[in-house]
Design goal:
This protein has one helix spanning 43-50, and strands at 8-10, 15-17, 22-24, 29-30, 69-70, 78-79. The protein has 84 residues and is mainly β. The protein has one domain. A four-stranded antiparallel beta sheet has the order 1-2-3-4, with no helix packed on it. The protein has a two-stranded antiparallel sheet with strand order 5-6.
Length: 84
């Protein structure tokens, strides 16, 4: 079953599979850190990363703003209020 986030639901573990990591419904957070961090970024990306403290929490979901933001792959935040 897919949830509103687009993640596949795993009933055995009560978690959602977000492609790159698992999201715990009971704890309402990811159970593993973001697989990519500042060490995998260019110098410019790293500078921008450090300007947004919400990004420092590698276990957070969509910068703690699930109303406006989504993370369909578990790797990157997308602004759902911006149309392409």
């Amino acid at each position: 079953m897919r949830r509103s986030t687009g993640y596949e639901s795993d009933k055995e573990s009560s978690s959602d599979f977000a492609q790159a990591r698992m999201y715990s419904l009971a704890h309402r957070r990811f159970t593993s850190p973001e697989p990519f961090g500042p060490w995998a970024m260019s110098q410019d990306e790293r500078a921008a990363f450090y300007l947004v403290p919400q990004q420092w929490n590698r276990y957070a979901y969509v910068l703690n703003n699930p109303v406006r933001l989504t993370d369909p792959t578990g790797l990157e935040v997308y602004d759902s209020s911006v149309s392409e």
